[in-house]
Amino acid sequence: MAPRALAITSAGLVTALVAIPLVAVFDRAGGIATLNAADWAALRFTVWQALLSALLSCVFAIPVARALHRQRFWGRETLITILGAPFILPVIVAILGLLAVFGREGMLSQALMFIGLPRIHIYGLHGILLAHVFFNLPLAIRLILQGWQDVPAERFRLVAQLGLGPAAMFRVVEWPVLKKTVPGAFLVVFVVCLSSFAVALTLGGGPKATTVELAIYQAFRFDFDIGKAATLAVLQLGFVGIAAAVLMRLVGAPKTDVGLGREQVFLRRMTPMRKLLDLLVIVVVASFLLLPILSIVAAGVFELPSLPSSVFQSAKHSLIVALASTALCLLFALPLATFKLGQTISLFGFALSPLVLGTGLFLLIQPYANPFELALVVTCVTNALMALPFAVRAIGPAFAQINADYGRTADMLNLTGWARWRWLYLPRLRRPIGFSAGLAAALSMGDLGVIVLFADPDRATLPLQMYRLMSAYQMEAASGAALLLLMLSLGLFWIFDQGGRRGFRA
Questions:
Q1: Does residue 226 fall inside a structural domain?
Q2: CB 389 within 8 A of CB 349
Q3: For residue 404, what is the domain's CATH number?
Q4: N or C: which end of the chain has fewer CB within 10 A?
Q5: Same domain for 131 and 177?
Q6: Does 337 fall in a domain?
Q7: Contact between 476 and 307 (Cβ < 8 Å)
């Protein structure tokens, strides 16, 4: 099959894999009349927690991004890289780490008891907000920090030469940056939190903290009301789509300032107090993000040798699913990254939640086969579609740059078809391909979305097995499983990413 034909085929397959399950969901939906007061309460709570999560993430991200931008210290770039770790961290692992730090038996509760204060109750709205801020704060920091870094260096030099104070600095330079970047960061976090499932499942704490996705899961697994689950899925899809469209229109397309590329200079005359405050902000946020991860390592290292065989069997299932979904993701991403329509099609997976897509696939499979026997296959396909937008976003710009730099030379040499891919594209795409593969594998390893709808005890993945251990209050075994899952997720990401980097240098 020629590359062009493969690109068209990939676009058609991705469209079909998204559209056909959605058609099945719409067809099975029972209508608004099937929803009760609890379902509408779940909708309101979903919107409310997403708004609060996005607001808190952006509010806390602003001073951190500001401090990271204007301060230079040893290890700064490493710290910025580490701050992105929660993005690829398995959700269930992070939740266990948050429980170890902020739970009733966590480090913070123990410290509060020592000084005579009551323990922290992490379940409910405040627990969901805590987890969402943990996951999305690094993303908001990176987006806002990028906005500051895009400001021309000449603007900072002029402000420094004029000797403007902090108030004028904020008005002239910082406020325009915030107006441009914060709405976009808010949008991204808001949409992500609208479709958050694992956090609500583990930290929801009852009917008052039930999201739409959790209501879909309950309708499937406990009420066996597929029509109601489909209706909720339609409602979730529609609301996310409308919210994203409205917010995108409000945000608009950001403008890019162009400078001479000189090093940015912030205010030179920074008081020791301002430097101390910046350092304090960085230390507090870094501790908030790193302590849960370190607590998992500390608690799980002694439990690894005594893990039951079911945990290792689940780890094997997760590895198979992760590698298969990574291969499928790259198989779709490489052709789609070559043309604009394909890049747009890749975003279909981002507009859906895994649970909504899983609902549609369940409805399609049920009349012809036992969905539980195909749990790992469905999970593999869903994870590939969820990772597809990130892979195309990483590969697409690199592909365009290669064409800009070498396209005419390749045309003069009559380098076409598969030969063009072999000798021109693939050697220069190794780095983004490696990063995309690592990201897809890590995200797939930690997924707890679709598998909960389909899996039986014999086909559980490691995140699901870990959730079952936590539900059974086997926290020691859960800690060991969490460390194993953490090592596998980060290990896969590192192997693929480093493989791409070394291939790129070669």
A1: yes
A2: yes
A3: 1.10.3720.10
A4: C
A5: yes
A6: yes
A7: no
φ and ψ of 76, to 5 deg = -60, -50
| Model confidence at 485: pLDDT above 90 | yes
Same domain, 280 and 324: no
- Do residues 431 and 500 make contact, with C-beta atoms less than 8 angstroms apart? yes
Say if residue 278 is in the same domain as residue 394: no
Count: domains in the chain: 2
Decide if 257 contacts 190 (C-beta within 8 A).
no
Angle, CA 452 vertex, CA 344 and CA 98 arms, to 5°: 90
Q: Which range has the worst mean pLDDT, 166-175, 319-328, 456-465?
A: 166-175
Residues 281 and 372 in one domain: no
> Both 372 and 289 in a single domain?
no
State the Cα–Cα distance between residues 418 and 2, nearest whole angstrom.
7
User: Are 401 and 453 within one domain?
Assistant: yes
Q: Residue 154: which domain range?
A: 35-253+261-296
**Residue 256: phi, psi to the nearest 5?**
-105, 125
User: In the Cβ-directed half-sphere of 202, how many Cα atoms lie within 13 Å?
Assistant: 31
Span 178-198, pLDDT tens digits: 888 888 888 888 888 888 888
**Conformational region of residue 474, where left means phi above 0, alpha means psi within -120 to 50, and beta covers everything else:** beta
| 47 and 166 share one domain | yes
For the entire predicted model, the pTM comes to 0.82
Name the token pair of 456: 């039986």
Q: Is residue 192 within a helix (H) or strand (E), and if so which, with residue range?
A: helix 175-194
In a domain, 20, yes or no: no
One domain, residues 194 and 272: yes
3-state secondary structure 21-68: HHHHHHHHCCCHHHCCHHHHHHHHHHHHHHHHHHHHHHHHHHHHHHHH
Structural domain includes residue 8: no
- Cα separation, 109 vs 113, in Å, equals 6
3-class state of residue 458 by DSSP: helix
State both tokens at 257.
Answer: 């300032």
Q: How does pLDDT run across 198-233, given as a tens digit for each residue?
A: 888 888 767 778 888 888 888 877 777 777 878 888
Q: Which residue has the tokens 């090093």?
A: 263
Cβ atoms of 230 and 30 closer than 8 Å = yes
* Token pair for 223: 């009420």
CB contact set of 351 (below 8 Å; sequence gap of 6+) = 237, 240, 241, 244
